[in-house]
Design brief:
Layout lengths: L18 E3 L2 E3 L10 E3 L8 H4 L8 H12 L2 H14 L2 H9 L4 E7 L20 H17 L2 E8 L23 H18 L26 H15 L11 E2 L21 E2 L5
Parallel strand pairs: 3-4, 4-5, 6-7
Antiparallel strand pairs: 1-2
Helix pairs in contact: 4-5, 6-7
Length: about 280
């Protein structure tokens, strides 16, 4: 599995995180937490099927390339900034809170937090970018103000974790499963997120490939399941799951099918499993 995580971002003391008790999640008040929420898909990760651009523009990088050809390279960053400024803002957080929702899932793209491996000045080292962290800072502030738990989801991992169109995968470059450097970058990114949001994080999710039927699953590669399991443990550790600060649900390889290769055997932290179906 990959860690694409989720984190409930709330201002909380160490003894008031979301926790697991048997088959239940407990909220900050110690009572059973029933998640009622939605997500801000197409905010940081632009997904072609949501934008009706599937086909020739079936990846975020292809959309950006087209934009650069039409408007100039310098306008791509401007478009990105305006898009995220206006696609989801505090008014939206207020709205979902007033609807009675208590959780918001936030799909994230790694490229706003760190450089891709081929652009790193020093191979194997990580360059950190402020854009992604500052936007999650704002999300946390809004969520805190309106009583919403933020669920952070690394939907587009370094290199791409699926051949589907939801993680900005570029087939001309090594995927997450084919590159040790990409996997190292993902683990270190979760370390950075954990350091920055440690007092806010109450819930971390490991998730291997976003929501799509994939053709780039780890088991397609030699030793893929072992690669998945070796990534799973360090990613959970760096995200803070080695102690009680985080609770990592696991998901399967194909739309979270039960037992579909999450590689959680032998893990000593409580692991609620997340199963999902797309209809």
């Amino acid at each position: 599995m990959v860690a694409v995580a989720m984190g409930f971002c709330v201002r909380a003391t160490a003894d008031s995180f979301v926790r697991v008790l048997s088959t239940k999640l407990l909220g900050r008040d110690g009572q059973t937490l029933v998640m009622r929420g939605t997500n801000c898909g197409n905010w940081m990760v632009r997904e072609p099927y949501m934008m009706n651009t599937s086909g020739s523009l079936d990846r975020q990088f292809k959309f950006d390339r087209m934009l650069a050809e039409v408007c100039g390279e310098e306008r791509v960053a401007e478009f990105d900034s305006l898009w995220m400024d206006n696609n989801f803002c505090e008014e939206d957080m207020r709205f979902i809170s007033e609807l009675g929702m208590n959780t918001l899932r936030v799909p994230m793209h790694y490229k706003y937090f760190t450089l891709p491996i081929e652009r790193e000045p020093v191979a194997g080292e990580q360059t950190w970018l402020s854009e992604g962290f500052e936007r999650i800072d704002s999300m946390c502030e809004w969520a805190d103000r309106w009583g919403v738990l933020l669920v952070l989801d690394m939907h587009a991992c370094p290199g791409g974790q699926s051949s589907g169109d939801i993680c900005d995968y570029d087939a001309s470059k090594p995927s997450l499963w084919e590159s040790e450097a990409n996997r190292k970058k993902l683990v270190e990114l979760w370390r950075k997120i954990a350091e920055r949001y440690r007092e806010r994080l109450g819930y971390i999710q490991g998730h291997h490939k976003g929501h799509t039927t994939g053709r780039l699953e780890p088991h397609r590669h030699t030793g893929g399941q072992l690669v998945q399991q070796r990534l799973h443990g360090p990613a959970l550790d760096e995200a803070g799951c080695e102690d009680d600060a985080a609770v990592p649900p696991l998901r399967g390889l194909q739309h979270e099918e039960p037992g579909a290769g999450h590689g959680g055997d032998g893990c000593e932290v409580p692991l609620p499993c997340v199963h999902r179906r797309v209809w």
